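step=predict obj=Phage head-tail adaptor n=114
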Amino acid sequence: MSVLHAGELNKRITLQCPRTVRGKLGEVIPDQLIDIATVWAMAEVKSNRKIRTFDQQQVVETWLFTLRPRPDIRIGWQIRWQELLFTVVAVDRTRPDRIEIKAERDTRHDRTGH
């Protein structure tokens, strides 16, 4: 088993959690992304696949983000990195020196339009 070195964590990512919040008029706004923390991570693309929907194809990329252990990250959270958004689909906490987060990026929802 290899040891995680600080120099390998060379990407700055923001962890976001969907929460229900109140608007300026007291209205309930569901599923707003709230920044939880900005941390150093390693990011590796694992795969991309095409999925056919009604009349179009979409590409879903699977990425692996490795970072120092945190107890709070859950499936459904978001990772923001380089103006891209990834959805956490699995969290592996089996190694004492790190957590590995499997996340998917649906290119239809990129803020950059790519």
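step=describe
The two ends are 37 Å apart (CA to CA).
step=end
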